[in-house]
Amino acid sequence: MATSENSSTFQANNFISIHDLSPEGRTLWVSDSITDCLGYTPEEFLQTTTYELLHPDDVERASVTHRENVLNDMVATQIVLRFRAKDGFIPTMLR
């Protein structure tokens, strides 16, 4: 697969979310593309906890990143994580 094709596929299969700085890192907002990516409506996704839908191998990295953001009073960060889709499937990341 060509690099531009990989990039297009990645961009078509991602979403943006905003989380608060509480220890739980509650999701405050998620883009509508969550439905195409994972099958959840934004409302359904907002009713879950941040960590319950993460791939088990990504939980620690997400937790460390969140903790560092809170300690350093960071207002924004970018991280790529794998989430479980509504049908139970966990998509793999493109390399």
From TrEMBL:
Gene3D superfamilies: PAS domain
InterPro entries linked to this entry: PAS, PAS-like_dom_sf, PAS_fold_3
SMART domains reported for this sequence: PAS (SM00091)
Record's protein name: PAS domain-containing protein
Ranges where the PAS domain occurs: 21-74
Pfam families: PAS_3
CDD domains with a match to the protein in the record: PAS
